[in-house]
Each structure stands twice: as C-alpha cells, then as structure tokens.
User: Fold these one by one.
Assistant:
Number 1:
Amino acid sequence: MTLDYFYGQAGELFSFYRIPKALFQEPRFQNLSTDAKTLYGILLDRMSLSAKNGWLDEQGLVFIIFTIEDVKRALCCADNKATKLLRELEEFGLIERKRRGLGKPSLVYVKNFSAESSKSIFQNRDFHDSGGFKSASQDPAKSRCNKTDENNTEKSETYPFYSEEEDGMSKREQLEEYFSQSLEVDTLLRLCPDDEDTLYQIVDLLVDTCATNRKMLRIAGDDKPAEVVRSRFMKLNADHIQFVLKCLAENSSPIRNMKQYLLASLYNAPTTMQLTYQNRTNHDFAHGSQRG
C-alpha cells in the first residue's frame, strides 16, 4: 500500500484523538503504559461529546458509558488487555467507574489530569456512593506509583454495606453485585471456562465471609479480626483470582479443607502474587546475566 503525502493544510482536515502531553512529560505518569495513555485520550474525546449532549449526573458531573467491549473495539485488543487498561487508569486516578448493577453498564467519569487536581486525586471518590460501590482497583494502595508496604495494610476500613436493604437489595445481594463487578467475573468466566465452578465457589465464599456478623475469623490457623479480613477481600481483583486459580491447579497435595485453603489463598493472594513474580523476575535476571 502506497500512501500520499500531506500538502499544505491538508492534515487539518482530519479528526484526531488528543492525548495530553502531561501524560508523557510529568514524572507522576511515567509508569502509565502507552496503551493506557492512548485509551485516556479516547475517553477524553468521548467525554467532550457527552458534555455537548448534556450527559450529567445529579451533581452536574459529566460521565460517559464506555464498556470493555468498547475498549476492545477502540484498541483492537482482547478482554484481558481491555480490563487491565481500565484498571490501570483507575489506579492512576485518571478515571472513576460507578457500578450500577442489574446488568447496566458502569458510568465512567474521566478525571482531570492537570497538576491542580493531582493533589486530591484520590480524595473525592465518595461522591457517587449512592446507588453504587467503589471499585476495588481504585484503592491508591494498589497504584504502581504509590508503593505501600503490604505489612502495613492490617487495618479495618469501612465499606458501604449495611444490614438493612438499600434500593431493594439485601446486604448479601449488594455484596454479590460488588464482587461480580470488582472481580470482573464475566471476564474471568471467558478466560477460565474450566474453572467456572471454582469461580462461583470463590465468590460465594467471599460474600459469606464479608456478610458475617462474627468478630473474629480463622485464616490459615490464626484468628483475625473480621474487619481486617473483610478489608483485604474487598481489595481483591481479577488478577488475584487468576493467581489463586493457578496455584490451585498447580497444587499436587491433597486439600483436606477446601474452604480454609481458599480463605488462606485469597487472604494472602496480594502478597504471595507480588513475591512470586518478584522471585521469577530475579531468577530470570540472574540466569540472563549468567548467559551473558
């Protein structure tokens, strides 16, 4: 295929996605992938259209609807890549998703990337608690640019689930909806079709554990405050579940108590996954150096 040159002002006849230079020039965005930066430009373009069409919520904030399928079409990528890119933008505070449940697509709020707003990048995440839930991947402790010591996360946090019904949904139904969204169960079912039964077992276990009224829970032989366990579980994402499924498949020892095994695996997944990948990286680096 032979393409022609641009002559004069011909280049101005076309429409373009605008990606802010700040995403490439400012140190705070240096770990943001190029694909995520591209997606942010696409979402920014869509947001300007939403603003023109008056797509505002009850607080006057502009939102867009941009699903996993939309990301796949826009960037010609697979489910897993599209999911990770949206999560990456959330971790950097560049977008915020409001879960609506009941099969409805999430509302996406494109956040202001400018320096003036960077100081409060994670401070205004509660504006949409009514009718929706916080995404687990929005937690700043999980951001690449905010390295948090896993040993200092043993503290309870408050989540918007109560014993009374909200919007006609019981506490258990709210938790089921939360984990269905935060763990991206539909995507996991497509990626891991052979693990369907285990996936549903994991979701049920997470719901049961987070819905309990007990003050202490036994995890890996130790009694831990239920709020600490709940806090950890509410931060899990699809990557953690895939890691647990992989560990389960590779385990050759008999499992006498599957419930306790899964509880321990889920509770320790963030730390264990990080250490496993770090050890693998160190091993590959060491062997690569030896070959050199």
Number 2:
Amino acid sequence: MGIGGGAGACVVTALVLPAGPASAADLVAARLQMAISLGWHIVLACLGVGMPALLLFAEWRAIRTGDGDSMRLARRWAKAMGVLFAVGAVSGTILSFEMGLLWPGLMGTYGEVIGLPFALEGIAFFVEAIFIGVYLYGWDRLPPRIHLLSGVPVLIAGVASAFFVVTANAWMNQPVGFVVEDGRVRDVAPWRAMFNPATPPQTLHMIVAAFMVAGFATAGVYAVAMLRGRRDRYHRLGFMIPFTMAAVFAPIQILLGDYAAKFLAEYQPAKLAAAEGLFLTQAGAPLSVGGFAVDGELRYAIEIPNGLSLLVGYSPHTVVQGLDQVPVADRPPVTPVHLAFDTMVGIGFFLLLLSAWYALAWGRRRDLPRSRWFLRLAAVSGVAAVVAVEAGWVVTEVGRQPWVVYGRLRTSDAVNPVPGLWVGFVVVSLVYVVLTVATVYVLRRMARAPQELTHAPQEPE
C-alpha cells in the first residue's frame, strides 16, 4: 500500500535525508508499515469523527426530554470516546513520524507544499483534545446545556481534522500549487495545493464514510446485545440512534461514490481502469464484477455490458480510457485495486439495502424490523463498514502506484534509502498488537461496568 494522510495525525516530521535508491525489501517494508499504520488509525479516526455526534444527540435528547436512558447512553459513549481518542493520538503520532522517517524524498521535496494542511490539522487536534478534557471533566460540574455546548467543538474539530489531512492525500493524487525549476520546487501556493481538484470528492467521501463507520459499528454492538435477549428500551435506543445516523448517510455515500468515479475518469483514468480491470480503451466499456488480471486481461469477471460507459458518461457510447494508454511501468497493480473496489462498492450497496429495510419498517410501524435476520445483518454492519473504508483506501493508495505524488514522484524514489526498514516494520507491528489488545480489554471492561444515572437533569425553561 502506498502512503497517504490519516485523519488525526498531529505534526509531520520532515526529516530530510539524502536521496538514493532503496532495496526492494526495504521499499516493501516501508509500504507495509505505512499500510498497517494507516489501516489501524483510520478506524480510530472514523470513530473520532462520528461518535461525538452520537453522544451529543443522546445528551441533547436527555436534557430536552428528561430521558434517563439517553443520558446513560451519552455517558457511556463519552467514556468510550475518551479511550478511543487517547489511543488514536498514539497511532496518529506514529504516523506523523513515519511520514518523515520513511518518506524523506516526499517530505524533503514537497514538505513546504503540503505543510499547511498538516499544521491546520495539528491545531484542530489540540482544540479537540482540550474540549474532550473539558467535556469529560465537566459531567455534573457544569450546567447541563453548557456541558452540551462544550462538546460541540469536539465534533467540529474532529471533522476539521479529517478534512485537513485528507486534503494532503488529495494533493498526492492531484499535485498543484507549485512549479519545478532546475529540479527545485518554487512559487509554492499552499492554499491552492490544499484545495486541489481531488479535495472535494475525497474529503466528502471520507467524512461521510467516517459517520457511517461510527454509526454502524456502535449500532452493531447493541444489535448483538438484542440478539442475546436484551430488548429493553436502553438497548433499543442504543441501537436506533447510531443506526439512524448511519442509514441517513448511506444513500448520500452512494451518490458521492458516483461523483468520485467520474472524477477519476477525468483526472486519474489509470486508477479507474485498474479499479474496473479495463485494459482496452473502448466505447461501450463493460462494468466488471470480480475477476483477476492475467496476462493483460481480466478473467473470470461478470460483465455488465456498457455499464462503465453509462457510469462515466451516462451514455453507452462514452469512450473510457483503458490501461493500454498507460506505459507498463506506470500501471497500478490491477487485481488488488479491482477486488478492493468491488468490495467497497458491494458493501456500500449492502448497507444501503439494510438502511432501506430499517426505513421501511420504521415508516410502517414506527418500530424496528421484526426479523432476527435484520439484527444479524445489523450486527455485522459495523465490521462491513470498516472493511469498506479499508478497501476504499486500498483503491486510493494502491491505485496511485507507482506514484507517491501522481505523475511527479515515484514511491521508490521517495522511500528512505537507509537499510534496515524491516526492523521498524516489526517493531511498529508489535506496538499495534499491544494497542489493539489493550483497547479491546479496556472497552470490554467498560461495557461490563454497572450502568449509571437513571434520570437526566433538566434545566428550567
């Protein structure tokens, strides 16, 4: 997997080392280490973006109606958010150092171009950290509405953090805001670099995905509890609040996915061709589901005639560029990008149908679907949403290969030339194992703790 931004990283450490060739083994180690770090951190980042919205809604509902169950949910979710934020800060810090230590060719050359979004993300991170402290410490110490308002900056800063870092990754896909003279970067326009053509589709797609992950993952926990017989109002409310939020975003994400595909057709046709396994430029290009790239063609795929042309240009006669227009050395690996793309799209439509099932039942009876199959599918929806996000980042990062800065800098030229990067990969992998075990242990202990507060405070009108 290539490199890119992870929402929640603090400050990029641009350690400039002399450029030079790295061994193939060290390049693989650096890419694997970055892949593990990003893949691990992005889950925490999604929860950090979406969970504040859930607990603020629950607390607002409790203050407005005096609902004790809503207040108990808000308090429990707040504790979980605090734990996840602390762990996410650790993984974000690791990513910050990895950007400089593993990729000096990128940061040494282009650090001044993409430094602005990372600096702004650092500010957003500290705002988020400060107000999380105020919010957690302020329970029962602040008036209810003041306490609720103290959580609003947490939500805003979390979304802003994701936005700023994803703009840096978007720049890697559409590098603008500078000129190169005599091999040196000059005339840097950092705001233009941050608001590059890839920024709208990538940031919208990622932020909506974060709310979906947080909603479906939280709802999945309560779906499991309900399958085990806990059908009381507390658990039903704990399911409905996050699932409703995720369900609202599901159709929006499908539309944003279509927007992103059309963007790729215009700005990164090689990535779209790899995602669809399209080797030949053609009109009436088919939409391919499944299959593997073998000897320059996609085999064993299910083809929908004219599907890709209709997706890109709303016409079966639309010409779609294939990989035959891309030099062999510049082509991304087709099979992993294509399968990741299919996985992301397939899960997206699964979550959309599950959301429609929920909306239909609620519209008819103001109740959850009565089938246990709905709860079974809802129980796995959180894992499915996480898999979709990970698959989406594989498409984004591996689909950009062999470039770390699209059309400008190859990944092999950006990697640290110092030998022994496998040692760092092993050490960082062990760190993430420890973090995973510790996080799961703490969250499980919190889930088993006695529930607190059976009533919600209300302020006089």
Number 3:
Amino acid sequence: MSTKQLASLVYSVLDLATVVEGKTAADTFKKSVDLARHVEEWGYMRYWFAEHHNMISVASSATSLLIAHIAEKTTKIRVGSGGIMLPNHSPLIIAEQFGTLATLYPERIDLGLGRAPGTDQLTSIAIRGERFNAVNDFPSDVRKLQTYLSSDNRFAKVRAIPGEGTDIPIWILGSSTDSAHLAAAYGLPYAFASHFAPQQFLTAIEIYRTNFKPSAQLQKPYVMACVNAVVADSDAEAEYLSTSLKQLFVGVITGKRRLLQPPVIDMQDVWNEMEEEAVYQMLAVSFIGGKEKVKTDLQSFLDQTLVNEVMVTSHIYDHQARLQSYKLFAEILQGR
C-alpha cells in the first residue's frame, strides 16, 4: 500500500469520556469539548462516544446527551455513537432521540449500534429488566430502527417524530464475528473494537467483506477499525505516556477498576507476568511511539487490513499530551 493510500485514510475519534485520577466527570466533559474543537480543525471526520454503565472511569453513560453537547460546541465534525447498545433501549426511543439530534444538527449525526450490554451482568439486569434477553432481538431491532428513521414509515401507526425521514447513517459495531455477518447481510458499514478485542478482527472483516450485500445506505463494504494511539515527540515519551492505558487494561483484566492513573516509570511495579501478557494481547492494534514509528506501524497495519477508516482512542492522563497525540496522528496521515 502506497503513501498516497495512507494519506487518504479517513481518521476519527472515539471518546470514552474517561475520568482521570484527581478530576471529576465535569472536568472530563470540558476536556471533551476542547478535544472535539481541536480535532475538528485537524481534519478528523467523526467524534463518537460509547455507551458504558457502572464504570467509575467512564462517564459516557448518557451517550445521546454527550453527542448533543459536542455537536452544539462544534460546527462541522460528525458526532455519534460508538455505540448505542441497542438491547438496552427501545428502538423507537433511540429513533426519537437520534431523530431529534439529526433535526438539530443536520447531516452531522452517526448512529453506531452494538449488542453488548456495555457493563457487568448485574447492571445489565438493572438496565434491561424483563427485557434481559433483548440481545436476541438485535437483528430485528436494527430493522425496526431503520424503519422508524425512514420516510416510508409515515403511514404506520407507530412513528418516530422527530426522526422519520432523517435516514441517519447506521453502523454495526462488533468485537467478534457475529456482528460481521449482520453488517454484511444488512449492507451497513462495520466498525470493529480492535482497541480492546483484536483477536477476531482479521477474521471478522474477511467475513464482512466476503458476504457483503449492497444496500440503499452502502454500495460496497466499509470497514472502520478502532485503535489505540499514543503519539509523542519521541518513542520513549510515548511509551511512558502509554503506561496510563496499560494500567487501565490491568484494571479491566483484574476487575479492579480505577480512575485513569498517571503514567509510571516502570510497569513491573504494577503488573505480574500473566497480566502483562494479557494486556499486550489487548494492545495488539495499538500505535505507540513518535511520528516515524507510528507512521511505519500504521502503514503495515493498512497493508494487512485495507481498512477504510481508523477511529482513534487515546487514554492519556495529561490533557495537553492527549491533544498533542491527536495532533501528531493527524499530521502523520496528512503527510507532514
């Protein structure tokens, strides 16, 4: 794959509204606005939030509200969900919420959909109640949502107002091969969570591309890979900054979740050998280093995967360092 193709790669942002040690959710939301305004200037295509619940370090539980907040504070960047966990909601309610967003911010709203609960089992029961098995209805609920958002639904007895006729672009999200089959069958763009579940990534996108059926929304397969990126002025600085991300993943593995921690000099003080191995498996699709190293690694990744778009998430403790990482990543893709 040539440098020209690297330069043509679409690049976007996934913001988990991460709360850092010593700060609050209110601080996080202010930083999200600042980041969104900067990445809009730096050529990023989208700014997405992911629905999570009962996680002290993730403040994006009310996803549609944060989307509205960012869309109001920016002017052109697309804003959306990466994703809404549809089994947690009624398709009609999501159609109304996102229909309202699309009415307020025309041609700027994306709706990414996932089937996972975005939380632990006990919290999932609290969210879904008697609808706990709604995950089995995910394929039909996606179809219902598409219907509510279409102008064809104007004669139905149940309508999404606002929402009807907005035809908001829908994406299928996944971290396994199940979602690849669905995205292909429905002819929808496919976003894979390779930033934390890379094991089935290559298999999933092959399934998606092989089985893709064109639709009114999309004529040919479109793959987005969500990736971790920590870019700094030197490889050593990036490695140091990335220890915050590694500590976060240790918390995921052990179940001992904490707010995003400051970077540390030596991770050997934090993890054991088994935890280290597990973290590096999760980090398989990550770009950590100075510009030259990340450029080389990114080119190799594109050669292997031929993805259309990367969505970057950067768990960096210091806000200015986080901004700098996104700026440098954009410069790489702009050939600067």
